[in-house]
């Protein structure tokens, strides 16, 4: 009887020791699982998509007829092309004397899914030149007189509620173009009144003007 009791006690102690040993062995074989993941997001054009439009409320690809002063001033229609990088081209006037202007009005239209923020208006140099404007005298025209007249011939840009500029704006904040909305873009070609005249024909070339919109202000 006494022998059976001792056997039971040993058996219980052995069981406890076995459980402790099992726990220790289990802990010694445990390990940490690290899960690492990543993702890239590359929105398509519908996400961030500001284009040129002839209307404030919808996007249209069309020509833009300028308002000219005086009415006899010859100016070409602007051409909107949104097939790649949005472009309006063919903005040109044939000035005959100071005081003449050609004004083109169209729209930057937010056709994307996010609000857009105008960040800068950049007047770029003419390709291969170190200036945003170059005036070239025709044969028989005084280059000296051309350069004096050139100083007062300009292209000016106004976007939405931004002040009109003829040199650009490097940093703009707080300028929002909500999705499915447009804002007016006004381009003015001007031969300033009261300025110098040249004694013959000359050509005026301007560099591209870029409007830079971003999804973040």
Describe this structure in words.
Helices cover 16% and strands 35% of the residues. The chain is elongated, with a radius of gyration of 36 Å. The protein is an alpha+beta fold and 217 residues long. The strands form five sheets. Strands 1, 3, 8, 11 and 14 form a five-stranded antiparallel sheet that branches. Strands 9, 12, 13 and 16 form a four-stranded antiparallel sheet that branches. The protein starts with a helix and ends with a strand. The chain has two helices and 16 strands. Residues 2-27 have low confidence and may be disordered.
Short recap of the structure:
This protein is an alpha+beta fold.
Estimate what percentage of residues fall within beta strands.
Answer: 35-45%
Number of discrete helical segments = 2
Order of SSEs: HEEEEEEEEEEHEEEEEE
Category by helix and strand content: alpha+beta
Largest sheet: 5 strands, antiparallel
List keywords for this structure.
alpha+beta; five-stranded antiparallel β-sheet; single chain; elongated; four-stranded antiparallel β-sheet; 217 residues; 35% strand
């Amino acid at each position: 009887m006494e022998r059976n009791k001792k056997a039971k006690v040993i058996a219980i102690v052995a069981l406890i020791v076995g459980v402790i040993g099992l726990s220790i062995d289990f802990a010694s074989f445990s390990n940490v699982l690290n899960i690492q993941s990543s993702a890239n997001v590359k929105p398509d054009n519908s996400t961030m998509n500001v284009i040129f439009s002839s209307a404030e409320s919808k996007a249209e690809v069309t020509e833009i007829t300028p308002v000219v002063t005086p009415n006899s001033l010859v100016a070409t229609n602007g051409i909107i092309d949104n097939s790649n990088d949005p472009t309006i081209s063919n903005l040109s006037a044939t000035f005959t004397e100071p005081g003449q202007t050609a004004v083109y009005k169209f729209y930057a239209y937010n056709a994307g899914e996010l609000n857009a923020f105008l960040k800068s208006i950049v007047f770029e140099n003419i390709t291969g030149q170190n200036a945003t404007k170059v005036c070239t005298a025709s044969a028989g025209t005084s280059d000296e007189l051309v350069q004096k007249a050139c100083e007062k011939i300009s292209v000016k840009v106004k976007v939405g509620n931004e002040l009109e500029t003829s040199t650009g704006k490097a940093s703009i904040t707080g300028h929002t173009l909500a999705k499915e909305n447009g804002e007016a873009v006004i381009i003015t070609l001007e031969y300033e009144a009261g300025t110098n005249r040249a004694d013959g024909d000359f050509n005026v070339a301007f560099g591209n003007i870029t409007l830079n919109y971003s999804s973040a202000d």
